Amino acid sequence: MTVTPATRRVNRGRGQTTCSIHGCGKPSRYRGRCGRHYREWLAMRPLLCGVDGCDRPRYARGFCVMHYTRLRATGQLGAPTPKIAAAGTGHVTGFGYRTIRRPDHPLGAGRAQHRVEEHRIVLYDAIGPGRHDCHWCGRSLDWFGTPGDSLLVVDHLDENRLNNQPRNLVPSCLSCNTGR
Which of 10, 105, 115, 134 sits 20 to 30 Å CA-CA off 98? Predict the structure, then answer.
């Protein structure tokens, strides 16, 4: 068999000059196969998602439905932002706040299913029960006040609703919390 410059260029020094399929003596052109065997291999190979470890079938642009949708929604293929918090730590609501089931806590005693937002529990444990002044305007507020009048609302200083460190939380009235 004569090795042509085109065969050498396609094989790029792999040493394979004939088709790797047993009994085929045609020149190797693509991935160690001749043109016919390469087309057969393309037709028979499973078209799987291009993400390592994903065994779902391809949908678009080389990805399965899940990875393609994630790529379009977030611009990346990495793990999605969890909608459910780690086991035992609660649930993240549609508004972005983590809620925790705490029937033993004073803020959870009278609520449906005893669910309380984590930031309220953290600030309550840090500053205690009773009346507190709004961090922004100084109005006197209560944990169990009436909404819009004297209800203590917990404000995140950095506006990250999942950053519930005590130094990031301050008492606020509803109008200051929504107006800033």
Answer: 134
